[in-house]
Amino acid sequence: MTATLIPATLAFRDDGTPFSPRFDDVYHSPQGALEQSEYVFLRGNRLPERWQSQRMFTVLETGFGLGVNFLATWAAWRADPTRCERLHFVSTEMHPFSRDDLRAALAVVMERTARADLAALARQLTDAWPMLMPGTHRLEFEGGRVTLTLAFGDALETLPKLWLRADAIYLDGFAPAKNPELWSLPIFKALARVAGEDCTIATWSSAGDVKRALEQSGFEYRREAGFAGKWTMLTGRFAPRWRVRRHEPPLPVTVGERHAVVIGAGLAGSALVERLAARGWRVTLIERHAEPAREASGNPAGVFHPLISRDDSSASRITRAGFFYALQRWAALDAAGHAPTRSHTGLLHLATDDEAQAVAAALESFGYPDQFVRGVSQAEAEAIAGTPLAQGGWFYPLGGAIDPASLCRAQIAAARALPGAQIDVRYGVSVGRIERDNDAGLWRIYDDADALVTQAGVVVFANAHDASRATALDFAPTRPVRGQLTLLDASPLASLRVPVIGDGYAVPLPDDVTLIGATYEVDDTDTALRADGHTENIERVAQMLPALDALRAAEATKPGTSASDDRAWRGRVALRCVTSDRLPMIGQLGDEYAARHDAQRLSGAWPLDLPRTPGLYGAFAFGSRGLVWAALGAELIASQIEGEPWPIERELAEHLDPARFLQRALRQRAL
Questions:
Q1: CA–CA dist 349, 363 (Å, integer)
Q2: Is residue 432 part of a domain?
Q3: Where does a domain end: 543, 578, 613?
Q4: Residue 526 sits in a domain of what CATH number?
Q5: Can you state which reaction this protein catalyses (predicted)?
Q6: Is 662 helix (H, G, I), strand (E, B) or coil?
Q7: Domain boundary among 578, 603, 637
Q8: DSSP labels, 142-192
């Protein structure tokens, strides 16, 4: 269960230095925050020279605080003409500041430094500062070339869940005597699990417990003169004299050319094209239809919102991370002139009695900010919706509805507009099979006439049901779900202001049209419209929105109709792809052939132990949550391919792992 996040309290000492009443300690040396960062952490880790001319460099920090170390590192990166292509900065923080308090604290720091360039970076940081919610938040700057990944929560819990390869470690935080947990042996063991071979480390502290913890975790250290008259500080490197970890931290995929093939141009595939292109990859997009978003992603609108559960389940945490990341990516599309069509007025979720009790308990337990979700009475909900409602529920101010096809087109357009972009789109091509050339390290893609389409070192299947067929996976249990939606012209719900969901959904569209739906018919692949499907949609939504009662009564008195009758409603049928655990397949595919031949040894395997098919990834089975999962899924796969820090905790990524069903079969000795 996720612990409630307690923000930091903004306070200052008499000399103006930011101070923590909780830990009775200052956030930086009174002799200067920027100067301390540059002396201890940049100089102590031999930066910027160590990142020069590299493609990627990753800094890991314990204790984000005011973010001055990040700002100093970012400023040094900007000023270095031979800087690395991409800078990743990963930091943990148990008590983050609110946006307003962070802005106020940094204003004091910036006034003292008198650095206009740093003040501009501080404004960018506070403008992008995430909502104070537990979990991992990824922020991007410099067009994605500088990435800040924040893990909000207790470092003892969050740090072991991060997955990355650190090139430099900033050991920062309140004094060991004030905050001993952040300097404890488990913290150093977690750092050792993700330290790269040449990883360096630096800290202003030279306490004996710190030195002993470093040695016990495989780090060697040396004493150096401290900052501003402090006698000593510590610098060092990861140099274990024994094996200290079971799995090596991630590395980029080894390919001759950074060329990836993405199969499928729906929500998943379009997001992948943009995320890979942002990292400089050449991308070939293959789509069997004549344009993107022709299947489930082609519905007139889809709703997006988080998922609230009483125990803050893995699905809730994944969906929350995806929701926030999607909003960030959509804002970037807006800023780049590729805005998808979406609403900005929030979303209402109407509650049954049982749901209302469970969600009310979750809201009280976790103390979510009102800007994330808040409970609303029936009267409050009706004022938001602009129409009578059957009951109250909860309101997501940042939720809403979006035109999925416009989002797909926006992501592909944004990818093509990037400097030096190499995007090859092949519409009207059906993939028949793939074939591995191990000597060349390439996958060859053939169409359904068995003609070679293209070849690349990396292939990502983002084509829903066809993914399992094309990859010949036995342990990828997906099922089709038929969903029929209904469009109401001159709708009785024309006054509806926001999307409303519950046992069904209603979305206001232009020209007094309302989208309602949708049926949920497992293992039904018939794409023809059915009159009884429209009737079901009307009856279900009428129980939430009484304005449909008259329409429901009229439908109940009609003789049987068919979808071809003049009285038939407009609508659309799409097939969703789901797994048995209702979570998507996102990540590198398992090698089932190798697993069968080593099944006995792998019977107790964890995900990182499983054999993987080189260069083959999946992003499918998104069900009805593609809008909130697609962008995060694309970022996760791109990070795995590049060997970057993952955008979510490793335990959550393992819930999405396409090889999780293979792992279960191995543990059950079913191979």
A1: 14
A2: yes
A3: 578
A4: 3.30.9.10
A5: 5-aminomethyl-2-thiouridine(34) in tRNA + S-adenosyl-L-methionine = 5-methylaminomethyl-2-thiouridine(34) in tRNA + S-adenosyl-L-homocysteine + H(+)
A6: helix
A7: 578
A8: GGGTEEEEEEES-HHHHGGG----EEEEEE-SS-TTT-GGGGSHHHHHHHH
* 187 in the same domain as 61: yes
Neighbour tally for 503: CB within 10 Å? 12
Count the Cβ atoms, other than its own, within 10 Å of residue 314: 17
Measured CA to CA in angstroms, residue 308 lies from 88, 132, 153, 355, 580 at distances of: 31, 16, 19, 10, 20
Please say whether the beta carbons of 60 and 69 come within 8 A.
Answer: no
Q: Give dist(CA 227, CA 35) in Å, integer.
A: 8
**Are 619 and 229 within 8 A, CB to CB?**
no
What dihedral angle (degrees, nearest 10) is formed by the CA atoms of 100, 102, 104, 108? Answer: -170
Amino acid letter, residue 530:
R
Token pair 């063991």 is found at: 189
User: How many CB atoms are located within 10 Å of the residue 323 CB?
Assistant: 25
Same domain, 514 and 574: yes
What is the CATH number for 95? 3.40.50.150
Question: Are 592 and 629 in the same domain?
Answer: yes
Closest CA to 530 of 581, 500, 572: 572
pLDDT category of residue 561 using cuts at 50, 70 and 90: very low
Cα Rg, the chain, nearest whole Å: 26
Residue at 544: amino acid letter: M
Q: How many residues does the chain have?
A: 671
Q: How far is Cα 309 from Cα 160, in angstroms, rounded to an integer? A: 24
Instruction: Collapse the DSSP code of 109 into the 3-class scheme (helix H, G, I; strand E, B; otherwise coil) and give the result.
Output: helix
Q: What gap in Å lies between CA 440 and CA 442, rounded to an integer?
A: 5
459 & 378 share domain: no
Total of domains in the chain: 3
Domain match, 511 and 593 both: no
Give the residue numbers spanning the domain of 390: 340-400+480-578
Q: Indicate the DSSP class of residue 38.
A: I
Beta strand 195-203 with 219-225: parallel, antiparallel or unpaired? Answer: unpaired
CB count, 10 Å around CB of 143? Answer: 11
Q: Are residues 26 and 163 in the same domain?
A: yes
Write the CATH number for 438. 3.50.50.60
* Cα gap 342→443, rounded to integer Å: 37
Is residue 562 included in any domain, yes or no?
yes
- State pLDDT tens for residues 607-654: 999 999 999 999 999 999 999 999 999 999 999 999 999 999 999 999
> Considering the domain boundaries, does residue 521 fall inside one?
yes
Q: What tens digit of pLDDT does each residue of 282-334 get?
A: 999 999 999 999 998 999 999 999 999 988 999 999 999 999 999 999 999 99
Q: How does residue 353 score in pLDDT terms, banded at 50, 70 and 90?
A: confident
Residue 220 lies in a domain: yes
The Cα–Cα gap between 51 and 62 comes to: 20
* H-run or E-run covering 234: strand 232-238
Residues 572 and 585 in one domain: no
Are residues 94 and 172 located together in one domain of the fold? Answer: yes
Dist. CA 300–CA 380, nearest whole Å: 28
